[in-house]
């Protein structure tokens, strides 16, 4: 009987996932631990200031917090008392060393493995929730068995497929739950423990079990295939603009073929988010590592087209400003990488804004969920210097006042009916009378 679960990493995946498991399994005590004390404090604090914004999340946290969902920085004692340990820490692209700019940085995962080994006094099921390169379980096992020879660790891959902005719904009604385990007696027992947890609310036929490597690779492949659809449609949006075809009509026509399907065919100013780019670059790196250069090049194109789309949209704006940038101001509507999230990691807005600021264009930025400090930090991470040319506004009206052009960057409902006399450039195809819409002739 599983009585206690620990989840290391109280971020966009750990937070919502554990909240939902706590809600569905009231008999299990779940504790989210994180090395960042401010984050833990925020999870314990006011419901309207939780570190992760997701529709429906604060209501669930309100229901289960301090009943069977807890937040702590005491990693040692929580690992020690739990039978299952989920690892949901970040796995960003490496910035230095071998594979810099491409491979996933596993230092946070490795440091979790060391903690788990150090603080475990009884057998543990260790669950890879983070997105990891195929065969990472081998590395984790190596660390665990080197650091702690007294305890048996069973490593399970259970990647997460939720999307931000719809995380709670995605967790309630997952298309599938994937569990990869070893084909050994203890491996099967561990997989069954996870099945028992998920099957309290997920129909059994949607819980798929595979070997560990298929599960690890299926997560990278799923993200790559999703991103590939966006890059495919975005590449065609450029051709539409040249030929008089309309990308939104094209998406509909293509998507009506059941074999293709209608989802994920919305042309945009480019996908953002913390995962698509990093996961594809990781796939490219892995392919090269195994000597599969053609495979690597194929997937790399998905990221290249995405960068091209952001540059293309920016050039359209610069052309419209007729190369007189110094006294021009552009309104940027939307800073997060999509609607209904406060997450701006890898958002197209950051890159478009960087390019505009570097040309001397002034910016007014609005996003209902992203704080000013985050906007400035995002730009400073990209080494943008002239951030004094950017104002972060509190309302849409304030943002639209005295600007020369409006750029719609995310698909929020509130941007659909803006009233303005100036040019509107729509990177999402949501504003019916835009002067320029990505992919429209
Ligand atoms: P995040 O940055 O929001 O959260 C990760 C947390 O882990 C941070 O709070 C960090 O402080 C903590 N952490 C890092 N190392 C730690 C350690 N050694 N001990 C304790 N805490 C530590 O990241 P995220 O967006 O939740 O993503 C986590 C993983 O899930 C990534 O591998 C990502 O690819 C994957 N994923 C993310 C999403 C998503 O929508 N964000 C969806 C599916 C999968
Ligand atoms: C994505 C996947 O959808 C999840 O299944 C996965 O778990 C997650 O990555 C992850 O591993 O992190 P997420 O990035 O949160 O989820 O959001 P998406 O809805 O996939 O959107 C990603 C980006 O693509 C956004 O910038 C979005 O605006 C853009 N997008 C999406 C388009 O430009 N066009 C589309 O048709 C769909």
Walk me through the structure.
By secondary structure, this protein is an alpha/beta fold. Helix content is 43%, strand content 13%. The chain is built from 15 helices and 14 strands. The strands form three sheets. A six-stranded parallel β-sheet has the order 3-2-1-4-5-6, sandwiched between helices. β10, α14 (372-381) and β11 form a beta-alpha-beta unit. The mean pLDDT is 97. Residues 131, 160-164, 223, 226, 230, 264-266, 268, 271-273, 275-276, 337-338 line the site of uridine-5'-diphosphate-glucuronic acid.
List the helices and strands and how they pair.
Layout: E1 4-8, H1 14-24, E2 29-33, H2 37-44, H3 57-64, E3 69-72, H4 75-81, E4 84-87, H5 107-119, E5 124-128, H6 136-147, E6 153-157, H7 167-172, E7 177-180, H8 185-198, E8 207-210, H9 212-243, H10 247-255, H11 276-289, H12 293-320, E9 329-333, H13 348-358, E10 362-366, H14 372-381, E11 390-392, H15 396-400, E12 405-408, E13 423-426, E14 436-437
Parallel strand pairs: 1-2, 1-4, 2-3, 4-5, 5-6, 7-8, 9-10, 9-12, 10-11, 12-13, 13-14
Helix pairs in contact: 1-3, 4-5, 5-6, 9-11, 9-12, 11-12, 12-13
Short description:
The chain is an alpha/beta fold and about 450 residues long. The chain has 15 helices and 14 strands.
Total beta strands? 14
Mean pLDDT: 97
Order of helices and strands: EHEHHEHEHEHEHEHEHHHHEHEHEHEEE
Q: Order of strands across the widest beta sheet? A: 3-2-1-4-5-6
**Rg, nearest Å:** 23 Å
Profile the largest sheet: 6 strands, parallel
Strand content: 5-15%
Helix percentage range = 40-55%
Ligand inventory reads: nicotinamide-adenine-dinucleotide, uridine-5'-diphosphate-glucuronic acid
Termini, distance in Å? Answer: 61 Å
Low-confidence stretches: none
Output the structural class: alpha/beta
Assembly context of the chains: single chain
Silhouette: globular
Number of helices: 15
């Amino acid at each position: 009987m599983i009585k206690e679960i620990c989840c290391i990493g109280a971020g966009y995946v750990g937070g919502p996932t554990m909240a939902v498991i706590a809600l569905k399994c009231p008999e299990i005590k779940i504790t989210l631990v994180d090395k960042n004390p401010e984050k833990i404090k925020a999870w314990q604090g006011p419901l309207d200031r939780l570190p992760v914004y997701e529709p429906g999340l604060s209501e669930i946290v309100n229901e289960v917090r301090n009943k069977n969902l807890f937040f702590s920085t005491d990693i040692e004692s929580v690992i020690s008392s739990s039978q299952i340990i989920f690892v949901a820490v970040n796995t960003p692209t490496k910035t230095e060393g071998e594979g810099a700019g491409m491979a996933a940085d596993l230092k946070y995962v490795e440091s979790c493995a060391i903690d788990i080994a150090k603080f475990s006094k009884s057998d543990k099921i260790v669950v890879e929730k983070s997105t990891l390169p195929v065969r990472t379980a081998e590395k984790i096992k190596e660390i665990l068995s080197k650091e702690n020879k007294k305890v048996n660790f069973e490593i399970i891959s259970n990647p997460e497929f939720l999307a931000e902005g719809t995380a709670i719904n995605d967790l309630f009604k997952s298309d599938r739950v994937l569990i990869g385990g070893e084909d050994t007696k203890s491996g099967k027992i561990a997989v069954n423990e996870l099945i028992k947890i998920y099957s309290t609310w997920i129909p059994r036929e949607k819980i798929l079990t595979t070997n560990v490597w298929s599960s690890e690779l299926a997560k990278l492949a799923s993200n790559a295939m999703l991103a590939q659809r966006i890059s495919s449609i975005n590449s065609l949006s450029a051709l539409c603009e040249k030929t008089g075809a309309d990308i939104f009509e094209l998406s509909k026509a293509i998507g009506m073929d059941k074999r293709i399907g209608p989802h994920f065919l919305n042309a945009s100013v480019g996908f953002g988010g913390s995962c698509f780019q990093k996961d594809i670059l990781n796939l490219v790196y892995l392919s090269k590592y195994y000597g599969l250069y053609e495979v690597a090049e194929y997937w790399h194109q998905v990221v290249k087209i995405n960068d091209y789309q952001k540059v293309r949209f920016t050039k359209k704006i610069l052309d419209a400003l007729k190369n007189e940038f110094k006294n021009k101001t552009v309104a940027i509507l939307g800073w997060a990488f999509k609607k209904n999230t406060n997450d701006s990691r890898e958002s197209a807005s950051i890159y478009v804004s960087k390019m505009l600021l570097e040309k001397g264009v002034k910016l007014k930025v609005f996003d209902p969920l992203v704080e000013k400090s985050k906007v400035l930090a995002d730009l400073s991470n990209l080494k943008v210097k002239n951030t004094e040319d950017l104002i972060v506004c509190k309302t849409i009206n304030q943002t639209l006042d005295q600007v020369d052009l409006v750029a719609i960057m995310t698909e929020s409902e509130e941007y659909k009916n803006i009233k303005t006399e100036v040019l509107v450039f729509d990177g999402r195809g949501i504003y019916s009378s835009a002067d320029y819409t990505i992919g429209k002739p």
